[in-house]
């Protein structure tokens, strides 16, 4: 333990918090740590022997152990704990101290806290961080929001500890207020979408092709060397080779098919609905997590509700090709939807987001990192105001080329009664987005018929209402 004051303080010494402390000390920052649960402090002391780390026994001691003006990172569970810690800190902090919430806070809570702290002379930033425990330890993607001038005070620290891609740090100031937490929320929405798409591919390969876990491991590993190269495809390959310690069977086969969630995917869908931005892949992913939880109901329904018999096609080489294309197509659609939401939110909430910078800091460290993000970055850097990723020249060519795969794979799934809602939502999004005409005129006519809600016309300006014929 050292007696000099520390550069940075971190409250919340869970797995992520402790990993971040170690990451910070790797870059020669001295760190003071505090957790209400003394056991976490003890763990950190053990993990950080010989490092410039001071674990405090009380919040007062923690605050006094920091160099003024203080820089404090909060990594506590999102929700009321964040407010409790902030309220305890306000009376003991002084002018110009900086408090950063690095948890998965809802962006509206970050807005409230920003306003609350604006009344004091303490600075506040909402910062998204992605990459799980490994990322926190060796380099996460960091999404900071808040006053730019305040960010500049900590920019060098964040750059030092973040992941790097081609030498570029995966952190950039994103915008004021809750911009950082908003971007992190959308990151998680995309994460939900990609995970669901991968799970649907697994379902098809397991049931239609009858692939073993070894074969699945090989397929996903190979995919990770091509178009689909990404963190989620890579870890999926690894998951299939994991043996269970208790039974020596494949662990994946022993995991209950009931997916949990902390809610960030649902928050993304909710806000997209509020902003009237279509993100059907994320919505489908959230719904499928909810459907998966109805395990007992599903088991009963399986006995009653019959579908087509599955035609197993073990030798089907074509299946792997169309599925790879279909997944690629759908991954593009998922990113397109996430970025379309960011674009709208940026205007609505006045974040003034730079979508190219966001794609750039998502290329490394975070859960949704993939080689595709390089193209996303370049698309938005060529055209800052691109209305939709699908309209970029390179991306549009890629998606058009891979649509054959997604159409075939969905046909196969439908024929065999295998649910692929995220793949289907991707294709429906693409087909709807590229339709200059949609049957929404009929919806308008129905609304006007039963509720006199009025409609616009194709041949003249204005708002119209008709006394519709009743039969
Ligand atoms: C990340 C992840 C992380 C998220 C978990 C669990 O970027 O490191 O998004 O922030 O909390 O993956 O999320 P769910 O419990 O909602 O699946």
Question: Could you say what the CATH topology of the largest domain is called?
Answer: N-(1-d-carboxylethyl)-l-norvaline Dehydrogenase, domain 2
Q: Which oligomerization state do the chains in this entry correspond to?
A: single chain
CATH architecture descriptor name of the largest domain: Orthogonal Bundle
Helical content band: 40-55%
The residue-averaged pLDDT reads: 97
User: Spans with pLDDT under 50 lasting ≥5 residues?
Assistant: none
Structural notes for this entry:
- The protein is an alpha/beta fold and 471 residues long.
- Helices cover 54% and strands 8% of the residues.
- It has 19 helices and 9 strands.
- It has helices spanning 15-26, 38-47, 59-64, 80-89, 107-118, 132-138, 148-161, 179-207, 213-223, 231-239, 264-274, 280-293, 295-304, 317-348, 355-361, 372-382, 393-416, 421-433, 440-451, and strands at residues 8-11, 31-34, 53-55, 71-74, 98-101, 123-130, 141-145, 164-165, 168-169.
- Strands 3-2-1-4-5-6-7 form a 7-stranded mixed beta sheet, with helices on both faces. Strands 8-9 form a two-stranded antiparallel ribbon.
- α1 runs parallel beside α6 (132-138).
- The structure holds 6-phosphogluconic acid (6PG).
- 6-phosphogluconic acid binds next to α8 and α11.
């Amino acid at each position: 333990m050292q007696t000099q004051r520390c550069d940075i303080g971190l409250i919340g010494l869970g797995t992520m918090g402790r990993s971040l402390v170690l990451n910070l000390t790797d870059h020669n920052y001295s760190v003071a740590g505090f957790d209400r649960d003394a056991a976490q402090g003890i763990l950190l002391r053990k993990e950080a022997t010989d490092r410039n780390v001071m674990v405090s026994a009380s919040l007062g001691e923690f605050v006094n152990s920091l160099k003024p003006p203080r820089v404090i990172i909060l990594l506590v569970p999102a929700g009321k704990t964040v407010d409790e810690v902030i309220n305890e800190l306000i009376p003991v902090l002084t002018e110009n101290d900086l408090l950063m919430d690095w948890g998965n806070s809802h962006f509206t809570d970050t807005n409230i806290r920003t306003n609350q702290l604006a009344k004091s002379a303490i600075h506040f930033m909402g910062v998204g961080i992605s990459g799980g425990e490994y990322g926190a330890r060796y380099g996460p993607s960091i999404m900071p929001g808040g006053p730019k001038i305040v960010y500049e005070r900590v920019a060098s620290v964040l750059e030092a500890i973040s992941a790097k891609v081609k030498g570029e740090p995966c952190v950039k100031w994103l915008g004021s207020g809750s911009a950082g937490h908003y971007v992190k929320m959308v990151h998680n929405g995309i994460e939900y979408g990609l995970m669901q798409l991968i799970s649907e591919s697994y379902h098809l390969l397991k049931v239609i092709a009858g692939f073993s876990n070894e074969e699945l491991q090989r397929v996903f590993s190979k995919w990770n060397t091509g178009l689909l190269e990404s963190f989620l495809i890579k870890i999926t390959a690894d998951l299939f080779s994991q043996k269970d310690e208790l039974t020596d069977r494949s662990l994946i086969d022993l995991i209950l098919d009931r997916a949990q969630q902390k809610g960030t995917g649902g928050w993304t869908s909710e806000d997209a609905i509020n902003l009237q931005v279509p993100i059907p892949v994320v919505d489908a992913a959230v719904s499928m997590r909810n459907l998966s939880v109805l395990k007992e109901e599903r088991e009963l329904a399986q006995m009653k509700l019959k579908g087509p018999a599955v035609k197993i096609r073990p030798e089907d080489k074509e299946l792997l090709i169309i599925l790879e294309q279909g997944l690629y197509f759908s991954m593009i659609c998922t990113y397109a939807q996430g970025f379309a939401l960011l674009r709208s939110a940026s205007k609505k909430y006045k974040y003034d987001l730079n979508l190219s910078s966001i794609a750039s800091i998502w290329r490394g460290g975070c859960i949704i990192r993939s080689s595709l993000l390089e193209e996303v970055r370049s698309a938005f850097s060529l055209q800052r105001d691109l209305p939709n990723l699908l309209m970029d020249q390179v991306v549009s060519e890629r998606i058009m080329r891979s649509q054959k795969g997604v159409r075939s794979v969905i046909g196969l799934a439908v024929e065999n009664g295998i649910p692929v809602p995220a793949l289907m939502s991707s294709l429906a999004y693409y087909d709807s987005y590229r339709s200059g005409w949609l049957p929404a005129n009929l919806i308008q006519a129905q609304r006007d018929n039963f509720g006199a809600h009025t409609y616009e016309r194709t041949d003249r300006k204005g708002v119209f209402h008709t006394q519709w014929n009743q039969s």
